[in-house]
Amino acid sequence: MLHLGSMLALADRAPGLGVIMGAPDAAGAYPVLVLKKADAHTPVEERLTPQDGLPGQDHMRVDAYACCRLSAAEAEDAAREGKGVLPAQAMDKIFRILGRSAARGAFEAVHRPRPFVPGVSPVPVSGKCWGPEEMESLTDAALDFWLTTGRFNEAFESAFARVLGRKHALTVNSGSSANLVAMTALCSPRLGQRRLRPGDEVITVAAGFPTTVAPIVQNGLVPVFVDVTPPTYNALPERLSEAVGPRTRAIFMAHTLGNPFDIDAVQAIARAHDLWFIEDACDALGSRYTPRGGASRMCGSFGHLATFSFYPAHHITMGEGGAVVCDDPQLYRIALSLRDWGRDCWCAPGRDDSCKRRYEWNFPLLPQGYDHKYVYSHLGYNLKITDMQAAVGLRQLERLDGFVRARQRNFACLHAALSPLDGQELTLPQATPGGDPAWFGFLLTLAPQVDRTALLRRLNAKNIGTRLLFAGNMLRQPCFEGVRCRQAGDLTGTDLILRQTFWLGCYPGLGQAQMEYMADVLLKYFHKG
After folding, report:
1. Which of 134, 326, 395, 504 is the most exposed place for a label (fewest CB within 10 A)?
2. What distance lies between CA 70 and its chain's CA centroid?
3. Which residue numbers are catalytic?
4. CATH number of the domain where residue 243 is located
5. Same structural domain for residues 435 and 451?
6. Which residues 6+ apart lie within 8 Å of 75 measured at CB?
């Protein structure tokens, strides 16, 4: 039997206050907390005061916690001394302090990165980078047990919009869902004559991730493919201009692996032909572009709509997650409706009747005063994230600037080391003029005589991760057979990428040692090391 006195002894043998936090469980064990005087090193958020329901004590800190079996006499003594059951508010705060402490301990003991050993340690192309702060925030959200979208998500959406300089940000459960919501929003009847209709064309590229193209097809629209070429891997402006036809209504392209495409050219074409412009910035959070005669801005701040991904491979992560951003309040309302089941109501979950008109709306085919919560203006989805994801995202967003610097530093290191191979065995990547990329990866295109598969096998044997440029050429993928589309000119560069291009990692979890190791393996493979 562990007594209250034994619990106090756990507190480094220093004077402490033992507090019974609640009634005994079925086995007769009481939750007991040991508190000690707070000192100058105790963070403010981890201090307990009489306002928290403590029995007549000054600032205290949590020192130990356990479920103890107490005798009836000990329980009665504790109650007489004011050490009885604490109010729920105090217990909530205490368990949050304990949760954050456990999260910090778990990170240090289990998750802290290990030293790199060349040839032994893996060198992945991407991965999540996090610290104890993310685990603490995740624990805090878990203790809310709200589970769906809530206070952390509201804070993240506001912070994300602020970082990008946009008026609205809407989280969704993936970057692919963000693309689906953005493209589908432009097909909304709410846009009147400006809406996209089946058969309308959308200019895009075939070399990229399939879920940029998929929403175009899924909405009955026709993708128009233009070529991309190394070393920027983005579409040439003249190709974009030539792709415009009588039914072209939108441009929807990704900034390839974080390298901004020519936004000046895209915006000029969009304005000249009254086209919608969507930026797929899923791989480009933190990348910047300086328009001619303008100031540098973040990618994702230029299009009518822009999309982002927070998958673990991306610039910040929530595990799963994504976002749609815009400035137009009408587009935001449409995107919100599509994300939230297609409903007409915009009340947040758990906040019914925030418009104060819940039973006062009238729709032609519905009974007068039909509950607005169950009026649907779109054929939508449920694509929300959980508050636990948003809690992680908030802490990740604080690290974005450091993540961008690390990616750029790694890219520069690898670029310099591999320069002896440039123009001979391979082509090194280059930023688009005006672009300042937060590189998602390090793209390499091999010379025609180099066997890509043989090289990738060699890198794999050396524990170096590689990836292809996703679909390579979307038109050659099995899923695209029979899909209606238009090809604007040849796709020579795209087919070269399909056959000879791959990429290496430069994400913040890697450092100079990994960059030098990858360069050394490649140089030796080509007999330059």
Report:
1. 395
2. 48
3. 314
4. 3.40.640.10
5. yes
6. 20, 24, 30
Strand, coil or helix: 94: helix
Number of domains observed in the structure of the chain: 4
In a domain, 404, yes or no: yes
Looking only at the bridges linking them, the beta strands covering 228-229 and 234-235 are antiparallel
Do 152 and 282 belong to one domain?
yes
pLDDT per position as a tens digit, 35-89: 777 888 888 878 877 777 766 567 777 766 666 666 667 666 666 655 556 667 7
* The pLDDT of residue 102 is above 70: yes
> Whole-angstrom Cα distance, residue 282 to residue 212?
10
In a domain? residue 120: no
Give, as one character, the DSSP assignment of residue 347. P
109 φ/ψ sector (left φ>0, alpha ψ -120 to 50, else beta): alpha
Tell me how far CA of residue 63 lies from CA of 18, 396, 501, in angstroms.
Answer: 10, 29, 56
Confidence band, pLDDT 50/70/90 cuts, at residue 493: very high
pLDDT of residue 20: 57
- Structural domain that includes position 359: 344-376
* DSSP-based helix, strand, coil % in the chain, nearest 5: 40, 15, 45
Residues with Cβ within 8 Å of 127's Cβ and at least 6 positions away in sequence, in order, are 312, 313, 505, 507, 509
Tell me the CA distances in angstroms from 33 to 37, 48, 206, 498, one per residue in order.
13, 12, 61, 62
Reference 403, options 440, 434, 444; nearest CA is 440
Residue 341 CB-half CA count within 13 A: 11
Task: Note the pLDDT of residue 77.
Answer: 67
**CATH number of the domain residue 412 falls in:** 3.90.1150.10
**Residues 142, 23 share a domain:** no
Calculate helix-pair angle for 175-185, 210-218, nearest 10 degrees: 30
* Shared-domain flag, residues 335 and 453: no
Q: What is the pLDDT of residues 144-197, one digit of tens each?
A: 999 999 999 999 999 999 999 999 999 999 999 999 999 999 999 999 999 999
Give the contacts of 387 (CB within 8 A, at least 6 positions apart).
141, 144, 146, 147, 148, 149, 150, 151, 152, 153
Residue 476 falls within a domain, yes or no?
yes
The pLDDT of residue 486 is above 50: yes
DSSP helix/strand/coil, 83:
coil
247 & 309 share domain: yes
252 in the same domain as 391: yes
CB 227 within 8 A of CB 512: no
Q: How many CB atoms lie within 10 A of CB 395?
A: 19
Asked whether residue 314 falls in the same domain as residue 455, the answer is: no
CB atoms under 10 Å from CB of 359, counted, come to 11
